[in-house]
Amino acid sequence: MSTQHEVLGLLAQLTEVPDLPQRLDLPLYETQVLDSLKTVELIVSLEEKFGIEISPAEFDREAWATPRLIVANMESRVGR
Amino acid sequence: MTPYATFGYFGVLLYAVVPLLVPRVNTRWSRLWLLGATGLMLLVQYWNPIELRPGVAVQPLWLVIVYGAFQWAIAQGFLILRRRQITRWPFYGAVGLSLLPLAVAKYLPLLAPESAIGFLGISYVTFRSLDVIFLIQDRLIQTLPTAQFLAYLFFFPTVSSGPIDRYRRFEQDWQRERTGAEVWADVDRAIHHIFTGFLYKFILAYLVQRYWLAPLTGRGLLDTVTYMYAYSAYLFFDFAGYSAFAVGVSLLFGVHTPDNFNRPFLARDIREFWNRWHISLSTWFRDHVYLRFVLTATRRRWFKDRYTASTLGFLLLFGLMGLWHGPHLNYLLYGLYHAGLMIGYDRFTRWNKEHGVWGTSWPWQGAALLLTFHAVCFGFLLFSGRLF
């Protein structure tokens, strides 16, 4: 399974927005789909899934604003 | 000289700012000028001596220099330890040492009455010192150039009361060369901000203070409620006005200091309020205290229920925010009150999600706005210290 597929699956499950994989430019924080608590869950599940470490200061609401940006960020860490 | 408080200050400010309007200076020498202007303005701001003890006076400028050298040494030392892969204790040590000057400045007068130490803005500069420590801990900083570090710490437009910029964001502006068009776009925004500052701080806040707040000396219920509204309005216009000046002057130097206020009284819930009020402070606490705490708790599985971590995170965030304001009961209560509001609001939204009582049509939204407004104003009344 590709990184994109896995990240989007995780996001859809976590946010309870089933059609999220089709809405790559959804502003996750502006629409309150994600908040700080869900962000923490997202970081922990991404870490477990890909076996990486994401430090708290690396997370940045602007850099993680949409599903597309989160996918790109993860692809740059673990490849496609 | 207190920044942005008198017309005399704005007069001196012209010397720092006018050379920036010469295009060649702006693109080639802007970094050097930022340092020079910061040095000049710190000299002006921290010249008038303060009394450490009765009879012992010192110019705060010296305290600023010692503080800067101390924070520089902590950050560089921590960076070396971090490169050697030593974890945990150096981090807590660095945070503790970095906080020490602020703790001494705020709590010394309690322990030894009649003595005082510190300089205007030490609370805000400490946030910037800590931001660097957190970035070193998370390995996002490998080297710390001295000029860049000091420029970030003491950048004069924001040194006294924020907004609290972040090191990595500041670094981008510091390293970027602006084109001529970008300079004029910044100047355009700067003028808008500075005039907003004059309107808010020198006209509206002044009028509210003079004709509404100051005459309210009664202690009855009606006077106290009126005081609550007047004080909230004053606090907003004074602080938002100051912040507009700080952001505006930053822009002239090509530093896009983040805005601190975004129409806070239009918030429809308390969470939204904290995204609109003193934004640079609340996001600092959100990222460095709440997020860090909840993330550690989740990774190490400290609690069975994930909401427990969130509840404790809110208490920690707002408790610390209260303590940061100073060693007074009203500030601590203010912090705990907001922690209570956030925790309560969080529970309520989860409950409402299942039961669907609070709707989304306009009467509900209007009610939410009014309720949030009053909850917030009551918080400011606690903060003001008028109640006890």
Distance between the termini of chain A: 9 Å
CATH-derived topology of chain A: Non-ribosomal Peptide Synthetase Peptidyl Carrier Protein, Chain A
Class by SSE composition of chain B: mainly alpha
How much helix is in the residues of chain B?
A: over 70%
Percent range for β-strand residues of chain B: under 5%
Number of strands of chain B: 2
CATH architecture of chain A: Orthogonal Bundle
- Backbone structural class of chain A: mainly alpha
Strand order within the widest beta sheet of chain B: 1-2
The major β-sheet of chain A equals: none
This entry's quaternary arrangement is: heterodimer
| Percent of residues in β-strands of chain A | under 5%
Run of helices and strands of chain B: HHHEEHHHHHHHHHHHH
- Helical fraction of chain A equals 40-55%
Mean pLDDT across all amino acids of chain B:
93
Note poorly predicted spans of chain A: none
CATH class of chain A: Mainly Alpha
Q: Mean pLDDT across all residues of chain A, rounded?
A: 90
Number of strands of chain A: 0
Radius of gyration of chain B (CA) equals: 22 Å
Walkthrough of the structure:
The complex is a heterodimer of chains A (80) and B (388). Chain A is mainly alpha-helical and 80 residues long. Chain A has a single domain, classed as Non-ribosomal Peptide Synthetase Peptidyl Carrier Protein, Chain A, CATH 1.10.1200. Chain A has three helices and no strands. Chain A has helices at residues 3-15, 36-50, 67-78. In chain A, helix 1 (3-15) packs antiparallel against helix 2 (36-50) and helix 1 packs across helix 3 (67-78). Chain A is globular. Chain B has 388 residues and is mainly alpha-helical. Chain B folds into three domains: 7-175, no CATH class; 180-261; 265-384, no CATH class. Chain B is built from 15 helices and two strands. Chain B has a two-stranded antiparallel sheet. In chain B, helix 1 (7-17) runs antiparallel to helix 3. The model of chain B has no long low-confidence stretch (mean pLDDT 93). The chains are: A mainly alpha (80), B mainly alpha (388). At the A-B interface, helix 2 of A face helix 6, helix 12 and helix 13 of B.
